[in-house]
Design a protein that fits this description.
heterodimer; A: mainly alpha; MetI-like fold; B: alpha/beta; 12 strands
């Protein structure tokens, strides 16, 4: 199963990087002009184009990039000359840290909310949770991010407004700096996890085999915590796996708001400057991450549900 | 002292008195009265068939005995089982009764077991609620229980998940779960409806045998009168939320006292009937919102006369027979069998 899944990943990777490459080329603007500096002659710009291989047909440029990537060479930034792999190794852990922080928060808050709502389905607690989570789902996270900066960083100064500390240097400071962005990212995640868990739990608690559990004489807490959670664990896993991918995408905007040196900022800057090797490399890493998350999810499915394991 | 008197002196195991069940309607809508003034009892070890067409309230009655109805249901009257009134007991008392005194088997074995736990853990979970045993001994007991309900190679099957078993096997597992704590009363709600005909017979044979061996009473909810005839001692017929007849099985089959019971019996397909000629009862059960004051069956009854629109009481017509029809003494109703039941003709394939 693993080999088949890995082979399936190849066309996905090619399609994703190819479409990003083409989109970049469609944008107006030319990195050669930037590189040539002010008052450069037309000949100088042409020379730079030739040097960087930008005069080649698009498909050849893409082909060269793919050949390099297969051999582990993601080439260099057109502007700074830094190897793309070095840049990514520097910024990717930062993004991963924020994503994991945000997803952990989403699960840590969303799961109790979902259980609370489901165990009092139709009651006051349930309605309160549902209203709160609808708000959480509806608000865009960049807006929440800006509001948080205004309230908790500028007015109260509880958290820093911008900036980032690497978790490898100072884990505590890293958590402190990452809290506002993580909470902004997690606001919709908590709501999502809570709502999805509630609806699948309510459905499960009313299924036929739960009547059998009541008939046995099991108390409600065993029914909820043992059978209920085990039965919805596959749904929960799906939600979390989708959430990781979606949070990864959402960091692009939130990192800009908080000036975090992560993948999002790197992609945005490189795109603005038409530095396509950097964008390509970053997209490759993002797609690889999503594919890995999906693969791990599928493996966990078969552990959690014996019916899937058998297939 | 006659034998009849001795049996009568035995206190009933289950005594249902004036049971009524209604479901609260949504806001602004009337609540529906599903069961009204239900009275019956079951003696220890007795097998009683509860019959009637779909929607007459048999399943709701069965669920109410275990208090398994949803929260919107309102229960009135008494359900006395071993000094506990299940209709009024608190949730802790109810849990103590479930499994230990009263257990239930459901219609759908395919969906009645938890798919993500092994059958062994689902049986031992039921056992553990009433009896704490060392692990090894507990496993022994579960294997024994599986063997008792006829599961081959139980020591290997114990670690199977429900999806690895056939429908018949799953129903056997359900029976093992229900019987692991040796309850005095088991409610079987159409336990064979979803199964193949050959498997149906095996499951019924198993339930009857276990009931006989253990002296366990059984309330068998079904619309299959043939199975009732073979397994039960008494038959209670329900119509539109009421008991309309309660009689020993042989008498009910030979000489039904209520036109509805007679109609049900005549609707049974017979080998000697002409092809395509099914007997049936015309019309349908009145809606719970528009229940007539008089006899609820009157609109469909071929023997209806003036006076049938008066309320009908469940009357004693013999020491062990009750009927809800004021004309029963005047009517000569057809049963399913002649007075001397003939042996079933052998089917040659």
């Amino acid at each position: 199963m693993l080999t088949r899944r890995l082979l399936q990943a190849i066309p996905v990777l090619l399609l994703a990087t190819f479409s990003v490459f083409m989109l970049l080329k469609l944008l107006p603007g030319d990195v050669a002009i930037t590189l040539a500096g002010e008052n450069a002659t037309v000949e100088r710009i042409e020379e730079i184009r030739r040097l960087k291989g930008l005069d080649q047909p698009l498909i050849v440029q893409y082909g060269q990039w793919v050949m390099g990537a297969i051999q582990g060479d993601l080439s260099e930034s057109l502007l700074s000359g830094e190897p793309v792999s070095t840049t990514l190794a520097r910024v990717f852990p930062n993004t991963l840290f924020i994503v994991l922080y945000a997803v952990t928060l989403s699960v840590a808050v969303g799961v109790p909310l979902g259980i609370l709502a489901a165990s009092r389905a139709g009651g006051l607690g349930d309605k309160l949770v549902m209203v709160l989570t609808s708000v959480g789902v509806a608000l865009p996270n960049f807006w929440i991010a800006m509001i948080f900066v205004v309230i908790f960083a500028l007015n109260r100064a509880w958290f820093p407004a911008t900036g980032f500390v690497s978790p490898f240097e100072d884990p505590l400071a890293a958590l402190w700096y990452a809290t506002l962005p993580a909470v902004a990212l997690a606001a919709s995640g908590m709501a999502e996890v809570g709502r999805q868990l509630r609806s699948s739990l309510v459905e499960t608690l009313h299924s036929q085999h739960f009547r059998t559990l009541h008939a046995k004489g099991l108390p409600f807490r065993s029914i909820l915590w043992k059978h209920g959670l085990r039965n919805v664990s596959v749904n929960l896993l799906t939600v979390i796996s989708l959430l990781i991918s979606r949070t990864l995408a959402a960091t692009v905007v939130v990192e800009v708001v908080f000036a975090i040196p992560g993948m999002g900022n790197t992609i945005v800057n490189a795109t603005l400057q038409r530095d396509f090797p950097v964008v390509q490399g970053a997209v490759l890493v993002m797609v690889l991450t999503v594919i890995t998350v999906n693969l791990v999810t599928d493996i966990l499915y078969s552990i959690l549900d014996p019916r899937i394991a058998q297939q | 002292m006659s034998t009849a008197a001795v049996i009568d002196a035995t206190a009933p195991l289950l005594d249902v008195r004036n049971l009524s069940i209604s479901f609260q309607g949504r806001r602004g809508q009337p609540s529906s009265n599903i069961i009204h003034d239900l009275n019956f009892s079951i003696k220890p070890g007795e097998r009683v068939g509860l019959v009637g067409e779909s929607g007459c309230g048999k399943s709701v009655t069965g669920l109410s005995l275990m208090r398994l109805l949803p929260g919107t249901a309102k229960i009135g009257g008494q359900v006395l089982l071993q000094d506990i009134d299940m209709a009024k007991a608190n949730s802790k008392q109810i849990r103590r009764m479930r499994g230990k005194s009263i257990a239930m088997i459901f219609q759908e074995p395919m969906s009645a077991l938890d798919p993500v736990f092994t059958i062994g853990s689902q049986i031992s979970e039921a056992l553990r609620l009433h009896e704490r045993l060392p692990r090894a001994e507990e496993r022994e007991r579960v294997i024994e229980a599986l063997a008792e309900v006829g599961i081959p190679a139980p020591s290997q099957r114990i670690d199977d998940y429900p999806h690895q078993l056939s429908g018949g096997m799953r129903q056997r597992v359900m029976i093992a779960i229900a019987l692991i704590n040796r309850p005095q009363l088991i409610i079987a709600d159409e336990p064979t409806t979803a199964l193949d005909v050959t498997i149906q017979a095996q499951i019924m044979e198993l339930l009857t045998r276990l009931s006989e061996e253990r002296g366990m009473a059984m309330l068998f909810i079904t619309h299959d009168l043939g199975v009732v005839a073979e397994t039960c001692q008494r038959m209670i017929t329900m119509y539109a939320g009421q008991i309309i007849e309660d009689a020993p099985v042989d008498e009910a089959l030979a000489q039904p006292a209520h036109p509805y019971t007679s109609g049900l019996l005549r609707s049974l397909p017979h080998f000697n009937h002409e092809r395509g000629n099914f007997a049936y009862i015309a019309g349908r059960v009145p809606s719970p919102f528009m229940m007539p004051d008089g006899c609820r069956f009157a609109a469909r009854c071929p023997h209806r006369i003036e006076g049938c629109d008066a309320p009908q009481a469940l009357r004693d017509i013999a020491p062990d027979r009750r009927v809800r029809c004021w004309r029963s003494e005047d009517l000569r109703l057809n049963g399913a069998v002649d007075t001397a039941p003939a042996p079933m003709p052998e089917v040659i394939s």
